[in-house]
TrEMBL record:
SUPFAM superfamilies: Alanine racemase C-terminal domain-like, PLP-binding barrel. Pfam families: Orn_Arg_deC_N (PF02784), Orn_DAP_Arg_deC (PF00278). This is Diaminopimelate decarboxylase. Pathway: Amino-acid biosynthesis; L-lysine biosynthesis via DAP pathway; L-lysine from DL-2,6-diaminopimelate: step 1/1. Its EC number is 4.1.1.20. It comes from Fluviicoccus keumensis. PROSITE patterns: ODR_DC_2_1, ODR_DC_2_2.
């Protein structure tokens, strides 16, 4: 199922033509589909239905409160990495008892807020963090539920910037140190060991690295049991990839099928932290062609979205599909689709065959994850608006930033 389909020669989201949404809300514009978000969430939830589990959507992928609220209503939990993300989850009506807190630099105030909110678990990444959580919990007279994030040293086979489960990556506790750190955790005040966690990278397109990592973590669980440490849950992280171009990533059902035989015999609740697989293909970025700039070497289409709106192509050389919302019946020629920002690296796509005229509307597909959340105000550009479509209706879930918004936080010397 996809909520983005061509009908009568123009691209729709659910029952609404994107052309009309661009006219109504302006561009650049992030457009999300409620139905698509829900379908992706349910695919994970149903795939693991045979065992006790909790899907904890990774908020970093798309933290819009409207998006979080759609997922919270379905019973989703949340994987957060900051106090800011916790505040968003709570504002969206998320259940703190279904929140896991990841990330390797948790601050004291963030730990305090999460403890007071009553989150399900802290995924701990170092000895020093364990000490900090223990100190904060003891000071507050509370008990912090903790898991250790172990680094299984598995190659996720993904882009080096988004691989996290190798020895040389900054994430997690080396698997050979894990027993020692668990033993320390068991002796520290204010902590309750509840689980184990691992996340090896993002945009994985095969199940093999997941299965490899899981085998290593399960072996670790057995060793821990021999040392008298028993766990209630296993957090398998996120990372399942999506199709941007021609990738054929496993579906949530195929992902579950690869892991379930290993998990069924275990008395463990399974947590998972998918982000991209839920949000990416539930959203697009709409942008309008400002100018066409032909030259002897290249054709440029200068559009009103830029690297500050969507940085994935510039940052990771990520290929994202760019389609005409209402394709013209004319010869297609290759264009570099570039933004107005003063950087050579400011492009959304290169050598895309399109038939374009100024004023045409383009849709960057798969932009629902790591899109708006990574946007910035570079070149003093206001951030785009975000809208959420629900059947026949579209709602602004974040208004466009105005010049007044951009200037409001700054001041001059007295
Ligand atoms: C700890 C953790 N959990 C979950 C995710 C979500 O990953 P993805 O969006 O690839 O599912 C990430 C990001 O890679 C992460 O670092
Ligand atoms: N931001 C990255 C993914 C990073 C995953 C976060 N741990 C992307 O756009 O692909």
């Amino acid at each position: 199922m996809t909520a983005f389909t061509y009908r009568t020669g123009t691209l729709f989201v659910e029952n609404l033509p994107l052309q009309e949404l661009a006219e109504r809300f302006g561009t650049p514009l992030y457009v999300y589909s409620r139905a698509q978000l829900e379908a992706h969430y349910r695919a994970f939830d149903e795939a693991f239905a045979d065992i006790p589990h909790q899907v904890c959507y990774a908020v970093k992928a798309n933290s819009n409160i409207g998006v979080l609220n759609v997922l919270a209503r379905l019973g989703s939990g949340f994987d957060i990495v900051s106090g800011g993300e916790l505040a968003r989850v709570l504002a969206a009506g998320g259940d703190p008892a279904k929140v896991v807190f990841s990330g390797l630099g948790k601050q004291e105030s963030e730990i305090e807020d999460a403890l007071k909110a009553g989150i399900a678990c802290f995924n701990v990444e170092s000895d020093a963090e364990l000490d900090r959580i223990s100190a904060v919990a003891s000071r507050l007279g509370l008990t912090a539920p903790v898991s250790l994030r172990v680094n299984p040293d598995v190659d996720a086979g993904t882009h080096p910037y988004i691989s996290t489960g190798l020895k040389e990556n900054k994430f997690g506790i080396a698997i050979e140190d894990a027993i020692r750190v668990y033993q320390r955790a068991a002796l520290l005040p204010g902590l309750k060991i509840v689980g184990i966690d691992c996340h090896i990278g993002s945009q994985l397109t095969t199940t093999l690295p997941f299965a490899d990592a899981l085998d290593r973590v399960l072996a670790m669980i057995d060793q821990l049991a021999e040392h008298g440490i028993t766990l209630e849950h296993l957090d398998i992280g996120g990372g399942l990839g999506v199709r941007y171009r021609d990738e054929v990533p496993p579906t949530p059902a195929e992902y579950a099928a690869a892991l379930l035989p290993r998990l069924k015999t275990r008395n463990l609740k399974i947590y998972m932290e998918p982000g991209r697989a839920i949000a990416a293909n539930a959203g697009v970025l709409l942008t309008r062609v400002e100018f066409l700039k032909p030259s002897a070497h290249k054709n440029f289409a200068v559009v009103d979205a830029a690297m500050n709106d969507l940085i994935r192509p510039s940052l990771y050389s990520a290929w994202m599909d760019i389609v005409a919302v209402t394709p013209r019946d004319a010869e297609r020629v290759p264009y570099d689709i570039v933004g107005p920002v003063c950087e050579t690296g400011d492009f959304l796509g290169k050598e895309r065959k399109l038939a374009l005229e100024p004023g045409d509307l383009l849709s960057v597909m798969g932009a629902g994850a790591y899109g708006f959340v990574m946007s910035s105000n570079y070149n003093t550009r206001g951030r785009a608006a975000e809208i959420l479509v629900d059947g026949n209706h579209a709602y602004t879930v974040r208004r466009r930033e105005t010049l007044a918004d951009l200037l409001a936080l700054e001041s001059v010397l007295p």
